Amino acid sequence: MRFSAFASSVCLPVLLAGCLTFAPKYSDVIFQKLGVVGTELTKLEILIETRAPQPVAYSGVEPLYISALASAKEAQDLATKRPAYLEGQPAAKAAELVAQNIQACWDAIEFSRKRFAREGQARNELDNIAIVKNICAIPKTMEGALK
Asked: Which domain of life is it from (predicted)?
């Protein structure tokens, strides 16, 4: 019984404090913004699926791309501020990795958007969007792990 009291009153807080040193604080706003990105990309998939076999014009998908890009940008803006206030701490590297993965998500969405605008709907468009969704799921999973 004494060990349990000691462990919970001294050891547990010390261990938790150590975790805070190596991980940035979870941001619900970043997590929610990345959730919007996933939702918009899913809407894009559904739109293409429901219109098949007819291809979807770029004008029909542009608002979904823009919404996904805007949410990724908002998440990126918040995520890039964390390494600055964590400078010199081990948690800064983890925060930087989250920010880099959000940037990779934004880049993937923008690449897909530009290609769709330039060339129209590809035959394997659903596969392309699935890849973008997977890229964008990485920073969301990383942020969620910080809870």
From this structure: Bacteria
**Residue 11 CA to chain centroid, in angstroms?**
34
23-to-62, 91, 104 alpha-carbon distances in Å: 36, 4, 20
The topology (CATH level 3) of 24-144 is Four Helix Bundle (Hemerythrin (Met), subunit A) (1.20.120)
First to last CA, the chain: 30
Give the pLDDT confidence of 92-120 residue by residue, as tens digits: 888 999 999 999 999 999 999 999 999 99
Pairwise CA distance, residues 79 & 50, whole Å: 35
Evaluate whether 110 touches 69 at the Cβ level (below 8 Å).
yes
Classified as helix, coil or strand, 127 is helix
> Which 8-state DSSP code applies to residue 24?
P
> How many alpha carbons fall within 13 Å on the CB side of residue 141?
8
CA-CA distance, 102 to 129, in Å (whole number)?
A: 16
Predicted TM-score of the model (pTM): 0.83
> What are the average pLDDT values for consecutive 10-residue runs of the chain, which has 147 residues?
45 40 86 98 98 95 99 97 78 91 99 98 97 98 94
